[in-house]
Design a protein that fits this description.
This protein is mostly helical. The protein contains 12 helices and 5 strands. Helix content is about 50%, strand content about 5%.
Length: about 325
């Protein structure tokens, strides 16, 4: 309702000059709206920039998808030889190449060449995936026929059931592309595939530390085993924790000096120390396990052990190593 120069909204008169409308849809805006448009409308300037970015990204991906060039290699799609089943066919319009059989596009042929030319850091990363048992690496190697296998589609490989964790054709496509993205961060993939490639990278970093720790443990075990074999002990006690390796070397040296023969004069001492450290049955036992067998307390077993070690001339204590 209008009356002169005033508009009425309920019982509150408003000056017509204070009425503000949306610059996009023309609806009247509330008094507290400061942006000049309805809140559900996007900012035109921001939307324009977003559209420009999307267009640039799409154009860049289109260019790379046509010819993906890896900076560490000189080979391009034009350098890749046509498969043996391909060739040239003369037609009325001229000479053209036969298409690659079974739908193998130039993209797939180029990716096969990509794996064949792996070298340096990329090859190390790919070999590491095999060592750590990542199934996507095995699938990518099979799909791109790295070892000269017959060509098969994703669907055919999934039906074979050779790769249990890759049971759907769509997931197979993601896995193969994710390996390419992992080896070459510039390779264009979808957002979902890029996330999977990042998951692979995080998984590798985690298991790389575990593998390095395992190798260090194995190296230390072999080092201690070599030293005790030199004094006539064939193997380390089973189930003995690593923290006791240095202490066990001290016992091995006492064994080498025939001090255990002197200890046999004390039957109980010899029985406790021999059972605990595997000289009788080749197994390591804790103080609690010895206490249960001997029907005495854990502290009493520890006292007997210390007495036996003193007779053997072993200064180090198990708790200190």
């Amino acid at each position: 309702m209008r009356d002169g120069n005033f508009s009425f909204e309920g019982d509150v008169p408003l000056a017509s000059s204070s009425i503000r409308t949306c610059s996009i849809c023309g609806k009247r805006l509330s008094a507290h709206n400061k942006i000049g448009r309805c809140f559900h409308h996007p900012d035109p300037a921001v939307e324009k920039k977003s559209l420009e970015r999307d267009a640039q990204a799409s154009a860049a991906m289109e260019r790379r998808s046509r010819q993906h060039v890896v900076t560490t290699r000189t080979a391009t799609l034009a350098d890749i030889p046509v498969p043996a089943s391909g060739g040239k066919t003369t037609t009325a319009t001229g000479t053209r190449r036969n298409p690659v059989p079974r739908g193998r596009t130039g993209y797939l042929v180029q990716k096969t060449k990509f794996f064949e030319l792996l070298a340096g850091k990329e090859k190390e990363l790919f070999d590491e995936l095999f060592r750590l048992g990542r199934e996507e690496a095995s699938y990518a190697a099979r799909y791109f026929c790295i070892n000269g296998e017959p060509e098969k589609t994703h669907g055919e490989l999934v039906k074979e059931g050779t790769f249990p964790s890759i049971g759907v054709e769509g997931w197979a496509i993601v896995c193969a592309s994710a390996i390419l993205r992992y080896l070459d961060p510039a390779f264009p993939v979808s957002k979902h595939t890029a996330m999977h490639a990042q998951n692979i990278r995080s998984w590798v970093l985690k298991h790389r530390d575990v593998a390095a720790d395992s190798q260090e443990r194995q190296r230390r075990y072999e080092d201690v085993l070599t030293k005790i074999q030199a004094v006539g002990i064939s193997q380390l006690p089973k189930a003995m924790p690593e923290r006791y390796y240095n202490f066990y070397l001290e016992l091995a040296r006492a064994w080498d000096k025939n001090k255990f023969a002197e200890l046999k004069q004390h039957a109980r001492l010899a029985s406790i120390i021999g059972t605990r450290w595997g000289f009788e049955d080749g197994c390591f036992y804790t103080l609690e396990e010895i206490a249960d067998v001997e029907q005495i307390t854990r502290e009493r077993v520890r006292q007997i052990e210390q007495k036996a070690l003193k007779l053997l001339g072993v200064i180090a204590k198990p708790s200190e190593t």
